[in-house]
Amino acid sequence: MGAQPYLVVGLGNPGERYRNNRHNIGFRCVERLAREHGIVLNKKRFKAVWGQGQIAGQSVILAMPQTYMNDSGLAVQPLSRWFKISPERIMVVYDDLDLPTGRVRLRPGGSSGGHRGVESIIAALGVRTFNRLRIGIGRPEYGDPIDYVLNDISREQEPLLLAACDVAADAIACFLTHGIREAMNQFNGLATRAAEKQEDMR
Fold it and tell me: Is 37 a residue of the active site?
């Protein structure tokens, strides 16, 4: 099969009903990467939609679990097992309530931080040593956070999160070529100009 590929997984919920939800920013990032690098997401196996190609000279599988968020591990585990991908070569992209909208942060492992999709992956793989890229969606001042993440991205947030996906794509390319530590050094906490402007206005 050749060199072990990398696996980049965007988290979200399948179906048109959820497509523009804040919780689906991981899906949007994977779709953004696929468009940029000409990777067709047309394979449907292992409870995921996925495709394989090259990013920054590295063999990469881009995947979007179709299990619903809370069972994401049921897609990640069989994909990683079939392609013999070690956890250190997995990058999971998902939303984070505790980061300001548009901020990006990477880490090489650790706890789930209360994110159910990540909890599921930890349980399925049996390890915490897979890489994560979190995209801030902010936390609502009022109301239930669950309702917030399952509602559509607001008009105000849309350009911030689109720009964050661009930053995430660059961060993932850096991870693939230089490793997680270099990606963290270059991109952790990085905000787009739009995000910085909005934060300055508060």
Answer: no
